[in-house]
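WARN retry 2 of 3 for item q-0093 after timeout on previous attempt; input resubmitted unchanged.
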Amino acid sequence: MAYQNPYAAYKETGVKTASGGKLIVMLYEEAVRQLELAESLFTDGEKLAPAGIEKLNKCIVKTQEIITELEVSLDMDKGGEIAQNLLSLYTFFNQELMQANISHDKTKLGSVRKMLSDLLGAWRTAAETTSASGQQRQNIDISL
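OK item q-0093 returned
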């Protein structure tokens, strides 16, 4: 079966073979990218051209979909207080993004993007640490 878009096939394979931690990192990266794109639609600081309203909406809705996916992936039983805190943050992010979409508020977009970027950094570290410890265990198993 030939793929129409080789990049899309490559990306799909990357998603299908990624670890859980890597998938979360990928979701955060896309959420941050969407908000950066949304912020770039504003001209002269805080002004949004009428032609950019639909694009802004698409970026915000895509980000909200990603945040909702992160929300439903939380394991509240195993995650304990951390999962509860993340759930609260995700709820806050979606509320802020809804308000930003309605009022075309670049400041709210920037605030959510900054917090998501901070969380992205933490998830990258966690995913790398988990991956490295798994690799060490795999090396040990092989040598036995």
